[in-house]
Write a structure and sequence with these properties.
This protein has 334 residues and is α/β, with parallel strands linked by helices. Helices cover 36% and strands 15% of the residues. The strands form 2 sheets. A 6-stranded mixed beta sheet has the order 1-2-10-7-8-9. It has a 4-stranded parallel beta sheet with strand order 5-4-3-6, sandwiched between helices. It binds 4'-deoxy-4'-aminopyridoxal-5'-phosphate. The site of 4'-deoxy-4'-aminopyridoxal-5'-phosphate has 16 residues, from helix 6.
Length: 334
């Protein structure tokens, strides 16, 4: 019989799929690593497993313990999924700007959520940061993963994402492109691919980070942007700035336009940071030739963004236009 012993065993080993339409005019091969195939729907399942395994090994998480983390998104889902399978409770602290759908996903997995006001200073005792610190201190047996500084985040990508890409491209990958949020993906995957390619006597794999315009990685000073999960206004410890050979800055408009195209033209319903990463990957691929193989990581699926990027009213409200190309029923009827 072919089955997994638990859903946790299905994390990782995500497929590569060639991009065929959005790559028009490009001679390099561009392959997307589609992380929504993870059971929790994102690359964050990988870090959740490694972080919880390490906390158990180091005695930071004991039977019946509680995981406390300020997160509203994919990391929460990954942690909730692994935690329930191992018998731990989860408490997530979220700012009140996080929408109902995202809250409901976390509670659906059995996590508890604590909602904090967005409009207070970080040092305010009601803030997102203060509340999660207090809960982690006061709940008996609490463990706070802290994805921004936990070395097991990047290590999970060093041990899984990197080797999968090297294996599946049979060592032919020449460029790895990924968005940067906590920096865990680029640090772990990038470091592995650099080391293995240099060791194999191949041309060293080039590592490219992609960042929303305004974020610190591409030289911004924290100006606001709408794409979620990537970019920072500070330098997290999970990010090793020596790994990237190059950083590409992408605007929200470019990222969202490509996100819509990936759904319509490649059949990939993915999140806004995926569109952003693909814009960066195509900028790189345009400079390359037919022997080059660019792998771009797509961190999550698009279902969490149906009310935003995939909603015409929302896009119009923020001043984004819709891509040309799809005929309306009126056009079809002449
Ligand atoms: N995209 C999305 C949607 C994410 O949730 C994250 C994680 N914050 C990233 C990209 C970036 O990954 P990393 O934190 O490993 O840099």
């Amino acid at each position: 019989m072919k089955y997994a012993n638990s859903v946790v065993d299905l994390i990782g080993d995500t497929p590569l799929v060639k991009l065929n339409r959005v790559t028009e005019g490009i001679s390099a091969t561009v392959l997307a690593k589609v992380e929504y195939f993870n059971p929790g729907g994102s690359a964050k399942d990988r870090i959740a497993t490694r972080i919880i395994d390490a906390a158990e090994r180091e005695g930071k998480l004991k039977p019946g313990g509680t995981i406390v983390e300020p997160t509203s998104g994919n990391t929460g889902v990954g942690l909730a999924l692994v935690a329930q399978q191992r018998g731990y409770k989860c408490v997530f602290v979220l700012p009140d700007k996080v929408g109902e759908d995202k809250r409901n996903v976390l509670t659906a997995y059995g996590a508890e959520i604590v909602v904090t006001p967005t409009a207070v200073e970080p040092t305010d005792p009601r803030s997102y940061y203060s509340v999660s610190d207090r809960l982690a201190r006061e709940i008996p047996g609490a463990f706070k993963p802290d994805q921004y500084s936990n070395p097991n985040g990047p290590l999970s990508h060093y041990e899984t994402t990197g080797p999968e890409i090297w294996r599946d491209t049979e060592g032919r990958v020449t460029h790895f492109v990924t968005g940067v949020g906590t920096g865990g993906t680029i640090t772990g995957t990038g470091r592995y691919l650099r080391e293995i390619s240099a060791g194999a006597g191949e041309k060293r794999v080039q590592i490219v980070g992609v960042d929303p315009q305004g974020s610190v990685y591409s030289g911004g000073t924290g100006e606001p942007y709408l794409v979620e999960g990537v970019g920072e206004d500070f330098w997290p410890a999970a990010y090793d700035p020596t790994v990237a050979d190059r950083i590409e800055a992408v605007t929200d408009a470019e990222a969202f336009d490509m996100t819509l195209r990936l759904a319509r033209e490649e059949g990939l319903l993915v999140g806004g940071s995926c569109g952003m990463a693909v814009v960066g990957a195509l900028n790189v691929a345009r400079e390359l030739g037919p022997d080059d193989v660019v792998v771009v990581l797509l961190p999550d699926g698009g279902r969490g963004y149906l009310g935003k990027i995939f909603n015409d009213d929302w896009m119009h409200r923020y001043g984004f236009s819709h891509p040309e190309g799809s005929p309306t029923v009126a056009d079809l009827l002449g």
